[in-house]
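Office hours follow-up: a student asked to see two folded examples consecutively, so here they are.
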Amino acid sequence: MAKRKKKWSDSWTKKAKNEGYAARSVYKLEEFDRRFQIFRGKSRIVDLGCAPGSWSAFAKKKCSKANLLGVDIKEVANYPGIFMNMSILDLEASVVIEKLGGKADLVLSDIAPYTTGNRFGDHIRQLELAGHALQCACSILKPKGSFVVKVFDGEDVQSFFKNVQQHFQTVKRLRPKATRNTSVEFFMLGMGFQVPEKER
């Protein structure tokens, strides 16, 4: 007999449904903005792994006039900006910059792999995706831009954290209140993107 998937029903999920968001993850982003004002003054925003669309909907709510571009392998109906139905592995920085009308102020990444239950394997696959998101962010961010990326905790996290630190003036490790108690996920927030000297 197939194992029945556990249904999550909690206050965050109910709140998201009542407020018209597709997923409870929106309140993680809301907390980041409340604490660090990540959307203040932003005019070009990229959401990597944007399905089911909650982060993009919140971004558009906060920055209604901003150019918003989302990327995901899953189709997102009625996307509130420019949607690219593809993997971030195939994303070309020049195309993103052209569609946005310039380099981004903020890059968001809530991407996660399909988990297998093997904690170390899931951790490694997540870091690979986070690494691709970082590489993309460094290619499309303007100086002093910001980056939010999801990470699964594990033994290689510190190395990735140091990698992010090489590109941003300030990097914070965050576990928002809307994160499930059983989850190994947390987020890194990079602020003050530093353009490599060779590109200046």
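And the second, which I mentioned at the end of office hours:
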Amino acid sequence: MIDWLNTKMFNFVHRNNLVYNTCWEDPRLDRQALELTSDDDVLVITSAGCNALDYALQAPRHVYAVDMNPRQNALLDLKCAAIRSLDFEQFWEMFGRGHLQSVRQIYRRKLRPEMGDWSRSYWDRHIRFFENPNRPFYFRGTSGNLARALNVYINRVLRARKWCDALLAAQTVPEQREIYVRHLRDRFWSRPVRFAMGRNTTLSLVGVPHAQRLQVDRDYQGGIVQFMQDCMTAVFAELPLKDNYFWRVYMTGSYTRECCPEYLKEENFWQLKNGLVNAVSTHTNSVQGFLEENEVSISRFVLLDHMDWLSTHSFSLLESEWSAILQRSRPTSRFLWRSGGLRTDFVNEVRVQYKGRQVKLGEILQYNQELVDQLHPLDRVHTYGSFFVARLAA
């Protein structure tokens, strides 16, 4: 019954809301793992669309952004419309600072005509997300609402804003470590925060399903809360923070020109505007549904962490999905995914039809563990327990 309720809560959040207003996967690692060329066609789960645009900057043939939540695709559609229709300063105000003056008029005149019917209907109701400088876009959506609540806690309860600002302004890792350990770590991780972060309702707001939480509880000493505490220690005390736009945007509600996703940098904006954005398309569907309904050949699959949920609740759907993936893949295809757990050995147990016989994925996938061992510790997000890069064995 508890598992059923947790699943219902997660599905309610994801089917009725814009969940992600920014991607929470580090594309710096992806670029090295994918090695995109002009011959590549990429399938990526859309999320907030930041990484789809990041891949487009590598000039592949096409980027198919697929998501079952049409609101996530509407966000990427809005970004693509803004790239095509706005100048850089307007684009930066909208997606760098999270608010744009006269956004309703600009939307009606320039952005709305560039989008399809569903995205238009969504932003007709929600373009107000970009209106208020005191509550910018990055404090909207379910993940943004949680970030806003944590900022209220930091500002009004802990009264620790000056130390957060000092942490973001630090120029060296030792300076970061001194500020975090001395002034923030123990104050932030109070008993109420540890309790809240251990609730499935809270985790659903940032897209962590119950199945993923169980994997972390199983694999990590101290469970999900200790895992998150250790992740934050790594981010704030062990890795350079000055270019970590993932955490900055949720600590402040905006990016800076020096610390932002690649698509928000002016030189990259112009590359996208001058044609690269045309390689991006959005598709509201499951991965399996998209692959079965479209005659496409995909050389790079970026599957994020959605298999964690399927592995517990719908293993047969996971097998069907991988059968569709293999049907549309090339001999040189690469597969990239992440997991909240430390071990995702369930992937190797997936049974598929391959070259006329039934096999387990573990028999036909060749993992690049050396590359993963090199890249995963450098992950600026640092909230995933594991990272996988694989190709089809010869």
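Two things to take away from it. The chain has a mean pLDDT of 92. The beta strands are 41-45, 62-67, 280-284, 298-302, 329-339, 351-354, 357-360, 365-367, 386-392.
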